[in-house]
Amino acid sequence: MVVTSSEAFYEAFFNALSFTPIFRDNFILYHNDKRPELGYIVRYTKARHYDIFLGNYTIPEDFGITFNIPSTHMRFGTVYLGETKFRLANEAVSSFKPSSFFVVENHPKGRQVWYKGQHFHGTEVTIYAPYFKEMIQPEYGEKAITPYEFPFNITHRYLPLELVKVLHQIERLASSPALNALYIDSKILECLAVITAEFRDASQNAFTNQYALGAISLGKNRKINLSHDDVRAIRKAYEIMTERACDPPTIEHLSELVNLNPQKLKGGFAAMYHSTIWEYANSIRMSIAANLLSTTDRSIEEIAHHIGYARCANFTNMFNRTYQMSPSAFRRAKR
Predict the structure, then answer these.
(1) Which of 19, 67, 226, 241 could form a disulfide with 30, with the two C-beta atoms 3.0–4.6 Å apart?
(2) Are strands 63-68 and 2-3 parallel, antiparallel or unpaired?
(3) Higher pLDDT, 286 or 206
(4) Is this structure's pTM higher than 0.70?
(5) What is the pLDDT of residues 59-70, one digit of tens each?
(6) Are strands 39-46 and 28-31 parallel, antiparallel or unpaired?
(7) DSSP-derived secondary structure for 255-297
């Protein structure tokens, strides 16, 4: 069976999870009453305009969905736990691992698979083409971004920090009455404002640098060109730091693992992802910490050690800078 719409894709996905919908005032809760250990997905939706999914769930059985969807939509989010593999037609197998992602999908077709026992936790936003045509362009005209300005079906593995912060704000209020339609509408607009500012400010930005080659600066007076091999090495370094964020290798060891000299690695990483290697690893660590604070009763000290901090005070300071609140305050707000 081939699904031919986003709604049909979601229906097949929830059926495979054995989740049934419960309609609340401002969201839909999907879960299985008989198997609460499988977790849940919270959905905020406006038909034809957008969907927001906040999930923390486990796959009950192996399954796959074949899709051929004649539509255009912008999709982005953060994945704290889990990995799913998918293949778009005429493309190599790709996957989502714990990180952020951004993609504009135009008539996507292919197959996506999940495996029994995989656990996922994350936030995903999908904005559909009619929203831009009916709501954004009449109001803001050329000032606002459209999905057609991005290359189609290319997954970017980095989101601007301001966009990640908006996603965290949405997640913090999951299932809360405060997360009403007005608030959701405002956050969708805020996301698009951040994306517009990032994409329009310069030809070299957090999006274009992930698929465009060119010269990068190493210091004030030195520029070098990144070859295709260099870009592949930097992407490999990104994957390593994603997987080992809680126990990251040194820059010297990382450069050996990807066979690229440290200076080019650091400069290329910053140019492609608008973040230093350590800033990126730390953003993953903070996301993992936020997940543990929200979903477990582990002590703050245990969480600090789990994500690689020898001193709890250092973890608390970094968490405070990231979320503008202490770990204990974050835990109270989530619950």
Answers:
(1) 19
(2) parallel
(3) 286
(4) no
(5) 999 999 999 999
(6) antiparallel
(7) HHHHT--HHHHHHHHHHHHSS-HHHHHHHHHHHHHHHHHHH--
